Amino acid sequence: MALGMVRRVGAEVGRDIRAAQERDPAAQGTSRLMILATWPGVHALFLHRIAHILRNAGVPALPHLIAHYARRRTGIEIHPAAQIGRGLLIDHGSGVVVGETAEIGDDVTIYQGVTLGGTGFHQGKRHPTVGSGVVIGSGAKLLGPITVGDGAKIGANTVVIHDVPANSTVVGNPGHPVRVDGRRPTGPDADWAHLPDPVADAMDALSARIAELERQIESLGGTPAPRDAPADAARATLRARRRNGPSPAGG
Questions:
Q1: Percentage of residues in the chain with pLDDT exceeding 70?
Q2: Are residues 106 and 69 in the same domain?
Q3: Are residues 56 and 84 both part of a single domain?
Q4: CA distance linking residue 38 with residue 31, whole number of Å
Q5: Are 165 and 236 part of one and the same domain?
Q6: What DSSP assignment string belongs to 224-248?
């Protein structure tokens, strides 16, 4: 059993290291040994995979002690029961929390401050299921027994409480599925600073409708209300947000 565990963990950690080399720009040109020695996300996954195997084997206490040590060493908290697929990249990683019944597919990318959390105190499935090829931006919170479809992208600081369709991009609080330029975003990472902003889009549409009504009133001989300088400035800001995207300071 010990030899089999070593082989399994070795193969899984090797895939995790390749994921860092392929998807983390900071790892370009960095040796596998250096990544293994210095990448906290790889450390957390290495320790989790050992703890997970020991827990499934019925070993008491030790899996939780390993998880506790991993959290203190890396700032990444993964419950020993969480099911994690191959090739997970936890980039930076500080503040990442993965709950007990969470499930993560293959080739997923998670940035710092992400929570795969539960809701309520009931037993059973209470944490998210994340499909393969998903990218979860900094500070995003996925709560409850929701399902995130394969290839989805979750924007930075998004709060997701409903299922996410495959190959969609979700932003906002609560999260709303959107598209980038009307098509599926490509590549392992999304341009988090230029994701669609549903609130700004709605406000921009409302502003345009008000302007149209003012023109109709004026054409009928009425006197439209005087222009509001602060409102004009707000509309200009919304137009700039649609053109340039929200501030990247949020993540």
A1: 78
A2: yes
A3: yes
A4: 11
A5: no
A6: PPPP-HHHHHHHHHHHHHHHH-S-G
For residue 198, give both structure tokens. 């549903």
In the numeric block, which tokens belong to residue 138?
């900094």
| Nearest-angstrom CA–CA distance, 129 and 122 | 17
Total domain count, the chain: 2
pLDDT 10s digits, 17-59: 999 999 999 888 899 999 999 999 999 999 999 999 999 999 9
Out of 27-36, 70-79, 167-176, 237-246, least confident range? 237-246
> Using alpha carbons only, how large is the chain's radius of gyration in Å?
23
- pLDDT of residue 191 exceeding 70, the answer is no
Residues 7-34 as b or e (16 or more Cβ within 10 Å = b): eebeebbebbbbbbeebbeebeeeeeee
* Together in a domain, 171 and 47: yes
Instruction: Please check whether residues 56 and 43 belong to one and the same domain.
Output: yes
Q: Express each pLDDT in 91-125 by its tens digit.
A: 988 999 999 999 999 999 999 999 999 987 778 99
Q: 174 preceded by cis ω (within 30°)? A: yes
- The number of angstroms, rounded, from the C-alpha of 194 to the middle of its chain's C-alpha atoms is 15
Residue 193 is classified by DSSP as G
Q: Same domain, yes or no, for 218 and 173?
A: no
Do residues 40 and 63 share a domain?
Answer: yes
Last residue of a domain, one of 161, 179, 194: 194
For residue 130, give the 3-state DSSP assignment: strand
**Structural domain containing residue 136:** 2-194
Residues contacting residue 49 through CB under 8 Å, at least 6 positions apart: 8, 9, 12, 13, 84
